[in-house]
Every structure is written in C-alpha cells, then in structure tokens.
Amino acid sequence: MKRTRNRVTSYDVARLAGVSQPTVSRAFTPGASITKDKRDRVLAAAKQLSYLPNSIARSLANARSNIVAVIVGDMHNPFYAESLQAFITRLQDSGRHVLAFTISDGRDCDDALMQALGYHVDGIVVTSAHLSSDLISTSQDAGIPIVLFNRRTADPALASVRCENEAGAATLARAMCNAGGREFLIIRGDPQGSTSRDRVNGFRSELEALGVAPGRVEEIDGQSSYAGSYDAVLSRFKDKVRPFPDAIFAVNDIMAIGCADALRGEFGLAIPDDIMLAGFDGVREATRAPYELTTIRQPIEVMVEKTLDLLERKQSGTLEDAGNSLVVTGELIAGKTVPAGTAAPGGDGDRS
Amino acid sequence: MKRTRNRVTSYDVARLAGVSQPTVSRAFTPGASITKDKRDRVLAAAKQLSYLPNSIARSLANARSNIVAVIVGDMHNPFYAESLQAFITRLQDSGRHVLAFTISDGRDCDDALMQALGYHVDGIVVTSAHLSSDLISTSQDAGIPIVLFNRRTADPALASVRCENEAGAATLARAMCNAGGREFLIIRGDPQGSTSRDRVNGFRSELEALGVAPGRVEEIDGQSSYAGSYDAVLSRFKDKVRPFPDAIFAVNDIMAIGCADALRGEFGLAIPDDIMLAGFDGVREATRAPYELTTIRQPIEVMVEKTLDLLERKQSGTLEDAGNSLVVTGELIAGKTVPAGTAAPGGDGDRS
DNA sequence: TTGTAGGCGTTATCAA
DNA sequence: TTGATAACGCCTACAA
User: Fold this and answer.
1) Nearest nucleic acid nucleotide to B10, CA to C1' distance
2) Which residues cross the membrane (chains A, B) (predicted)?
C-alpha cells in the first residue's frame, strides 16, 4: 500500500552493480575518487534501472539546494520576462535552477520571500517591491543571501545590481534638449520604486543644469504599465490647454510604447515631428519598426551575471559589506524618436 | 567548523517550547491534533528563533515536493510569458511552486526534463519541443506525470491541454473569406510543432471546403517569432511578382504583429484595406491600438487550471488513459484587421 | 493529545 | 579507492 511507487534509489543501483551505496554516489559526483571501471559499472546499472539521483535528498544532505529563488513582478513588462529567462538560462547552464515566484496584484513580497526561505535556497533575487526589514534579517540569520535586481534600498545591508539610472536619464535629457526640447513631460512609474525615482531625478536635475526651469517639467503617473501610460497620456492630452510638451520621457520602454500608441492613435501626433519621446530599458519591442525608440539599454546579461556573482560571494562570505551594490552602465540607443541634436539650439532634423 | 551556519531546526524550537519535536511539526501542520495552548507556545518559540520549516526535508520525508516543473521555450513570445506567470500565480496560491526550465537555442528538452525528474517534482508541464519516448517512459516509471501545454503528440500516453486549433483557424478562414479574401498567405511557425501544423491544416481545409483552390494558398515560414515573420514577409513582398495575397493568416499573434509591422513599415500597406490579417493566441499585445488584431484567444487561465487538474489526477491515479487530452475552445476576437463579413454564402455561426 | 523510534535518499567522515 | 556509519530535518507510525 505504501510501496506502490516504484522509487529506484542508489541502494538498488549499488546492489545491481555489486558495490556499496556511497560508491554509487561517487559515480555521480564529478571529480570524486573512483576507478573508471567501477564508475562505468555503476552508470550502466543506473541506466538499466533508469536511476536518477534524488536532488531533494542531495540538497538535504549537503545543505545546498542548487536552487535560486527569483521573485518577479509583472511579466507583462518584457524587461522582466527577458530577465527571468536570462536567469533561468544561466543557472540552468551551471547546474542550478530557478524557483519562480511572482507578486501579482496585492500579493505580498514578504510572503513569497518567506516561502523561498523555506526551501533553503542558495539565494534570492528580488526584482520588485519592498521587503520588510524583518524578513531581511531573517534571511541573514538563515545565511541566505538576497540581491535586488534593478532596485535598491536605503538599507546598505541589502545588495543590489542596477543600472546607472540617473546618468542614463540625464543622457536622455541632454539629447532632448539638444534636439530642441523646451517643454517636458515625464511619465513616471511606481512612485515608491527606486528605479522610477532615480530616473525621474536624474532627468530633472540634468534639465535644471541645462537651464530648463522646473516649471517646464510636468509629471504624470503611468503606473509602470502600457495601459497605465496609455490612459495617463490620454487624459493628459484630452482637454488640456496647458503648455503642450514637445518632449516626453517615459521612465521605462513599456510605458513609452503605450505613450507612443496613444499619441499616434488617439491624437494623430507624429513622433518625433510633433513631439519627441524617450524610454528606458532597451527591450526588444522598443527597437521594432513602429517605434525605434530612443532609449537606454540595460545590459541584462551582464546584470544577471553580476547578480549571481554577488549571490555566490555573499554566500561564501567573501563579501563583507563594502561594494554590496553593483552599478552597471546603460548604453544609449539612438532611435528615431529623438532627433539627432546639433549642439546648437534650434535643431536640425538630420537623420537620413 | 561545520557548524558555522546558524540553522534553526524543529529541535531547537521544541527545546525552547518545552515540547517534543513532532509537536513542533504538528504545530505547523494545518488540522493536526494539537492543543491550542501548545501550538501557541510552539509558534511563539518559532518566531523568537525565526524558525522556518525546511521544505526540502519535508519533501524528502513525505515524498511530495510541492514543486511543479514548467519547461518553457521562448519567453519573447508573450503567450508563453503570460502562461508562465499564470502557472506561477496559481501554484503559489495553492502552496506549491514552479521550478522553471527553459529550452533556449539548441538546448535539449530532454535535458531539462531529466533535471526536473531529479527533483522528484510532483509534475512536469512542457510548453514546447519534442520529448524522446525514452524520457517519457522514465518519467512514467518514476510516477511523475507530464502534461503538454499547447502541444500534442501522436503518443496517446502523453496527456495534453490545448486549444481547438483546427476549429479556430477554420473560423478565421471563414471570416476572411466572408470579408472577400481570395488569395491567401499563411505564415507558419515551427513546421515540426503540432500547434502550427494543426492551425495550418485547419485553415487550409476550411478554405478548401469554401471552394478556394489550393493554388491560391501560399505558405511561408515565420519561425514562430516576430523577427522571423518580419523577415519572411519582407523577402516575400520585396520583389515578388507572384499573385498578391489579400489575406494573411499568421499562425500566432507575435508573428502577425511582425507581419503587420513589415507590411506597413516596409511597404506602406494598410491593414485591412490593402491586405487583411489574422493571428492566433489573443495575447494582450495584439489587442493594442496599433494592431487590434483579429485573432483567436486561447483561454490561458482555463488551460492552466486544466493542466494542473490533469497533473493531479494522473498523480493520484484517478486517470487511466482515456480523456488524457483536454481541448478547450478558443474565442474569436473580432479586431479590425479583418473587415466584418457581409454574410453571404457560408456565413454560418456554428461549426458543423 | 503527546512522545518515542524509525525512515526518506543522499552526502560526509573516517577507517580500512 | 572503497565501505561502514553517521548526519541532514522532517514526517509517519505506534505507543503511552
């Protein structure tokens, strides 16, 4: 009744191969001391029984799960979908795996984190939302490292990997000024999120440094999503007599795309002729023909690699507390939504 | 020296709470026989030590991992990104979790599957590619159920959940005929994949039933991706004097979008005025303003639910072999890329 | 309701 | 190199 399931264990293989159980274990451990002869015999027996080492038991025995938890927010933002795929691919290639969590609407990040901790994963990657400092210290007690991806917090104990958001946004501000932008509109994302805040700040302060009066910079909330941005643009342009912006900075690409669709579809505006537009992230969608968005590309592959590095170093204790935060440089993608600037004011529009 | 890691176990909690270890276990098991008094004491102690039950150990003890492996292909196709998120959300809500695998370029599906089997997961969901029958029988021996999502195989032993691909494609064929389509172009996906094949077949046979000569139906390869479709359309229309199609059926939405972008951006064609277009999947992107694609929506939530149902029933042995394949009905989304049919002949609502 | 004893399948330790 | 034996942390009997 209990023995209904046909579980093949290392003991079965050992018996068939005429060796001891630990020898079976060694046969499956790269670089273990075992004669080729025995290893072959074991592997043959294993194959015959279609035996597969039980990763769960292994995890329990050596206190290493080879699992990394990745907590991801909205996968409708291609940046996160791409990032998740990058994590999966990279970990899979190194024999580890991703336990995926999501924080869809309302679900608490702490909740997901707690569950992840329960699996004694090797590390946790958080791509969104806020963590209670309670959980953070719990994870530290448990020796499970956490790294924020594309996020940061004031708490220096929390490692993070992110892009130079301020600098990137500043670059875009310069480009738009050069192209003749005078009245600006910012579409921000989650006001609580560090990423949106940093980009908005970077953009604003560069504008100020370039002599644009703060009164010429308006800000609306795009809720980090396509639909949010679309709607925000809709209601902003619907019956507003206010100064008409000639340059829009959406804090991420998905919102920039939503904005572009609204501007064109609802108001028949041309980009960049009537209004210029910039985004941030450099997702694939943004580079497509209908958009060719001017944006900053976040080097996802690099960021993922650095995130995993950081996790490992934190786990092995190589890392103390300095250098906890890695900041990578984004690359300006000169699309067609911001005309090439000719330093001189007045613009030119030369982009054959 | 080994004890450097501060692992809190149920024994520690038991000691602090003045109870036995199994009592701690019971305190964390909903519906176990334990007095409220003791449970409270245990939970208090647990909190004080920030103890978290070890899911790995639990899995080993009761031979149930509460983990479902999801093997996903290309996450650049929003259909799969959405599906993955749906799986994660739903499993997370029921206290289970997703171990995510990917089969990026060239990586073998069997490989991922093997690794999944090693974790003795409760079930495996496969959203793409082919499985060797070897692996399938291995998983059956191991008692780990596999369900194909949006795929099928000839092998009846393999359960699958999918949409009525033929019927959906047929509906689109009718709609396009009704709208005046005479020369057809099909953009297919992976010719090896059942999904693309079924849709192509459904489309073709309905056309034939409607009296369209096979010679009027052309087929090109869009490689299941935006870029593949874009390029295919590009080279098809570049210098082709062949009959100009007036109706295009892309086997999935992401390819339809690529096609639309190419038609408009490269050739200045209007949709549906110059050429009509239909897709399949009903992803969010396809419904957006620039596209408003006529397509068939696959009910992802329902499909996910049925997939998990199937997994559970297979695991508990409730399922023999009949009814292994669940087919759900897709919903026609009447977008703007196929003009409303002027009824006329063959305009019946239901499918005979 | 509670505690004791044994098992889940592996890796780690230490002799041989 | 190999084998016996003890963890790993929990759950499921079974007995009290």
Assistant:
1) D9
2) none
- CA closest to D6 C1', residue: A61
- Residues of chain B in contact with residue A100, where contact means CB-CB under 8 angstroms, are 84, 88, 97-100
Provide the whole-model pTM.
0.93
Nearest CA in chain B to A259: B289
β partners of residue B125: B70, B147
Partner-chain residue, chosen from A5, A56, A97, that has the shortest CB–CB distance to B65: A56
The domain B10-53 having CATH identifier 3.30.565.10: the answer here is: no
CA A17 to chain CA centroid, Å, is 47
Task: Answer whether B82 touches A (CB < 8 Å).
Answer: yes
By the 8 A CB rule, do A201 and A172 touch?
A: no
Nearest residue to nucleotide D8 when comparing alpha carbons to its C1'?
A: A61
> For residue B348, is pLDDT > 50?
no
- CA atoms of A260 and A292, how far apart (whole Å): 11
Encoded tokens for A183: 């009245």
**Alpha-carbon distance B304 to B77, whole Å?**
17
Separation CA A70–CA B179 (nearest Å): 47
How far is B29 from A284, CA to CA, in rounded Å? 46
Burial of B18 (0-12, 13-18, 19+ CB in 10 A): exposed
Cβ–Cβ < 8 Å for A89, B102: yes
Q: Give B134: exposed, middle or buried? Use CB within 10 Å, 0-12, 13-18, 19+.
A: exposed
**Per-residue pLDDT, A241:** 63
Pairwise pLDDT comparison (B105 vs B165), residue with the higher score: B165
Q: Where are the domains of chain A?
A: 10-53, 64-164+299-330, 165-298
Residue B177 region, left (φ>0) first, then alpha (ψ -120 to 50), else beta? alpha
pLDDT of residue A4: 39
Buried b (16+ CB within 10 A) or exposed e, A110-149: bebbebbbbbbbbbbbbbbbebeeebbebbbbbbbbbbbb
Among the partner-chain residues B5, B50, B102, the one whose CB lies closest to the CB of A85 is: B102
Class at the top of the CATH hierarchy for domain B64-164+299-330: alpha beta
Q: Which of A185, A269, A224, A261 is nearest to A73 (CA)?
A: A224
| Residue ranges of chain A whose pLDDT lies below 50 | 1-4, 322, 344-352
The confidence band for B32, taking pLDDT boundaries of 50, 70 and 90, is confident
Which residues of A are less than 8 Å from B262 in CB distance? Answer: 289
Residue A204 and residue A214 in contact, taking contact as beta carbons nearer than 8 Å: yes
From the Cβ of B21, is strand C under 7 Å away? Answer: yes
- Closest nucleotide to residue A32 (Cα to C1')? D1
> What confidence score (pLDDT) does residue B132 get?
77
State the Cα–Cα distance between residues A305 and A328, nearest whole angstrom: 11
Average pLDDT of chain A to the nearest whole number: 89
Q: What is the DSSP letter of A181?
A: -
Contact B101 A119 (CB under 8 A): no
Superfamily of domain A165-298: Response regulator (3.40.50.2300)
B288 pLDDT above the threshold of 80: yes
Query: Virtual CA dihedral for A85, A90, A93, A97, nearest 10 degrees?
Result: -70
DSSP symbols for B188-246:
E--TTSHHHHHHHHHHHHHHHHTT--GGGEEEEE-TTSHHHHHHHHHHHHHS--SPPPS
Matching CATH topology for B10-53 and B165-298? Answer: no
